[in-house]
Amino acid sequence: MGKLNTLEIRYCHKGLQFPEIRSNMESLLTHSLRKLDLSGCHLKDGEIPSDIGELSNLQELNLSCNNFTRLDFSLSQLTRLKILTLNSCKRLVELPKLPSSIFILLADFCESLTTVGDFYTNCKWLCQVSLVRGGVVTNGRRLLPSIQAMLEGNAIKNHSMLLKLEGHEIAKEFKPPLVSGSRCRLKLPENWSNDFSGFLICVVGTYEISHYSQRISMEHVLSGMDYEDDVAWEESDNDKRTLVWYVSFASLRHTTWWSSTYKAVLFSLGLDAAIQSFSGFGVALVARKSGSGPTEASTTQQEYEFSHYTPSFNIVQDVQYALKIEFPSKYKAGNESLYEV
C-alpha cells in the first residue's frame, strides 16, 4: 500500500458502518496518497479519521454528502492540498481554516452554513470558491476586503478568480457601487495599466445567474460620455446570489483589443437567455502592490500547478473596439470538470 495514490470509498450503504472500515484505514492512509474521496459515507462528528490531517502529500480531499457539523482535525499539515470539496454536507455549520496551498473550495448545498469565519486567511492561491444552494451567508461582506487584499501583488494577480456566494452581502459593500442592470461603465485613471493588475467584476441577481456560461463584453468608450444614465442598484427580494470574477490584465495583454491608452470601458453581461437574471453589476480596478510593475507569470512548480486550477475563460470576440470573454458554468481543474452549479 506504500505507493497508493488514490483512495475512493464512496456512498457506503447505510448497513455498512464506517467504523468497521476504519479498522483498516491506517494501512490505507499512506503518505503517498494524493487523492482521497470519502463522500457519502454518513460520517458524523468524531467519525472522520484524524489520520487524514497527517497526509502531507494529499492534493484533493472530498468529504461531500456526510453528516458532520465541522471538521474535527486540522488541515494545517496538508501543505500540498489543492482542492477541498464539502458539497451537500447539510449539517456543516463552520468551514475549516484552509492551508495556504489551497486552490479550490467547493461547499455547495450546505444548508446549515451561514457564516464564513476566517477560513481564507493567508490563502494567496485560492482562486475558485463556491458556496451556493445552501444557507445564506450573512457575513459574506467580510470576504470582499480580504479578496481585494489577496489580489494585490500575490500569485493570483496574473490569473483569474471566481467566487459564487448565496445572498448579496458582498454586492452591498462593493466599490464603486453596483449599477442596475447588466451594463456599467468604468472610468480609467492615468497609467491604469501599470498601477493596477486587473478588473474585479461583481454581479448580483436571481438563482439563475450561475446556471449559464457567463459572457462579459468590454468596449472602448469615450471618457466624456454621460454617466448619469447609470442607475444605482437597489437590493430586492430577487437578489439571491452573487458572482465575483477577477480578470487579470496579464490575461488580456495579448489581445487585439488591449490598449493602455483607453480612458473608459463599457462592460456588458450575459447571453440573451440570462440577461433577465441580472439585477446589479459593478466593476472595480484592483491595485497593484506598491513597487511592482507588470510581470510575466513565474516558472515555479507551484505557479505551473496553479495555472491548471485557475478558472479559465474563452475569448469569443477580439477586435480593436471590443472584447468578449466567456466563463463556463462548470468548475475546472485542468481539463477535468469538478462540479456544476
UniProtKB/TrEMBL annotation:
It comes from the Eukaryota. InterPro entries: Leu-rich_rpt (IPR001611), LRR_dom_sf (IPR032675). This is Uncharacterized protein.
